[in-house]
Amino acid sequence: MQGSQENMITTVIKGICVGGTMLVPGCSGGSMAMILGIYDRLVSSVSSFMKHKKESLCFLALFCVGGGMGMVLFAKPLLSLMERFEMPMLYFFIGAVGGSVPMILKKAQWERKGFGKILFFLLGAGVVGVFALLPSDTFQADMNAGLTSYLMLILAGVIAAVALVLPGISVSYMLLLMGMYDTVMKAITQLHLPYLIPVGLGLAIGVIVSTRLLESAMARFPGPAYLCILGFMAASMAQVFPGLPGGREWLTCLLMLAAGFLVIYFISEKEIRGSAQTASR
Description:
Low-confidence stretches: none
Number of helices: 13
Strand content: under 5%
Distance between the termini: 19 Å
């Protein structure tokens, strides 16, 4: 019973960590979930929900409670830090993503030979690059345009859901690329349902479809799947790279980069060892 309670508390805490970072542009909730060792469980709980309804519902409810708490507690402070110390914070996030790379390489079985690995890596990076090239007003919707606007918002929700599910792609950054970040934040603040409902519908559709596809890809082709994810992550880091710091700020940025890398590296290594011990029992 005590172990079950500890698992429930751990799920909520991990949800807080994921939710607290999701709204920061460039910070991927999927990457944070993977770093914390909860990503595979999230994907399987959504894609196989009907097979294990009670267990999946309990897990997802606990995670969503934690995620909501994280958004409320940490999103504003993080965004405030981003506004006041933008470059050091971006270096910290880049370091944090970099700290998870060794874990992804192990999952991708990088040590095995094969030139195809580079192609899968480039494929993942190319997907992020394509979205970066889209005009910023592609998904801007005129709510007076009727059905077309609602369909565009649903499509935007589907795309945002893919970014939500895939590690390395930030949902908030994807909204920025689509020119929707400020509008979505304003709609959430004002609870503007005519805008939020179609986006939410698209999110639901996108999460269900993408998790099923992703779970299937990870089960059948784990190496290529994780290499694509690594490409997503690398391209995302490149997109948010703020340039080289000037003056005395370079030392602060260097320390933040190292801090982000070391924190996530040790957390991910601990999760790997924990998973290995669980599997050996």
